[in-house]
Design a protein that fits this description.
The chain has 4 domains: 4-83, Phosphorylase Kinase, domain 1 (2-Layer Sandwich); 90-191; 198-275, Phosphorylase Kinase, domain 1 (2-Layer Sandwich), CATH 3.30.200.20; 282-377. It is 34% helix and 19% strand. The protein has helices at residues 50-62, 90-93, 102-117, 155-163, 167-177, 179-191, 242-254, 282-287, 294-310, 346-355, 358-368, 370-377, and strands spanning 8-11, 16-19, 26-29, 34-37, 42-46, 72-75, 79-83, 130-132, 138-140, 201-204, 207-210, 218-221, 225-229, 234-239, 264-267, 271-275, 322-325, 328-331. The longest helix is centred in the last third of the chain and has 17 residues, at 294-310.
Length: 391
Amino acid sequence: METFKKIKVTKGEKMLEIENPTSYPLIGMGAQGAVFQLSEEKCVKIYPDPLKAEMEKESLLAGKHLDFFPSVYESGENYIVMDYFNAPTLKEYLRNCTYIPESIARKLLEILKQLKEAKFTMIDAPLRHIFVLENEELKVIDHVNAFKRQHPVPLKLLRDLNIILLKESFLSYVESLEPEIYQEWDDYFHKNQLDYKEIPVGDASGKVKTDSAVAQPLIGKGHQGAVYRVSEGKCVKIYGKVDHAKLEQKVLVSGQELSFIPKVYETGKNYTLMEYLTGPDMNSYLKKQSSLSPETSQGILAILTAMKKRGFTLIDAPLRHIIITNKGFKVVDHVYSFTREQSRPLELFENLHERGFLDDFLNHVKVLNPQVYEEWTKEPIPLPEPVEEVG
């Protein structure tokens, strides 16, 4: 008989690593564990760290009387078998809404009140962790940090609603339905309000660490800094190291005439305030394409040739750093553009190879700019070895 206990989930360098010899499909993965569907009613969450399993088990047992908690059927040192919800998340459910339905607002408020009454310290839940069942019944998952993190107000929920422009609609219901709670939240935000210039971003072992209690929506995080949206058209990048701020600001400020450089509004010792770019990144876009258009190749090539002409020493544009906006392609993350020596876009080549579009891109370049094509292909392009399938 097939058993989920054969599945192994371990911590990788950047994400969880999974060895699954069973037919149970992976349906979700986060920082603490991976979730596999066992049946129409059940799933199992497997943790690389038994401590996380114990933390979530403690939370689920403490909230077993709450209607919005999943039921637990079985648990072990590194796993929990619980309810499986075949339903959209609240983020998906609200995708096309111009205002939040009052029924949803009431149920969210009730969930938050019950979490507080149950003595949880995490009075919060991001939209992706809330499922909408029939008759708008809400279920909340991922309770690992329910007794660890201190969120006396729903910071993540409000951040998510703000991103999809439903925060004000929700707060208007809170003010009307629960004026005391509204005042409590308002007092908290005024007391804990941070100037975005002072948002703490730590740097430890080459990885940026952010504070989950910051109210501004976190929209991106990399090795050098974290990016928060601060208004409809602006975002701020906070750097873990002052040196990184200086390096990127030099590139951005001196290149404001370049079409692919985001507009900069203000700079400081550890931050850069710039335009918020609306649109998908190129990697996400190409995942949904069956071919690479010549126009896309032409746009990427124009950026790379402009980089070289402008004096960039790092000639590269990883797909995740290219944002497709209504004003054309924009490129983010320029910390090392003037300091690292690289004449060929090697990370771009690798990204396109992974998507299956490298040959198409190079053929387009050969037609558009034969000289650049010769420079890029006179030596073999280093690409990762294909992974051999076992068994």
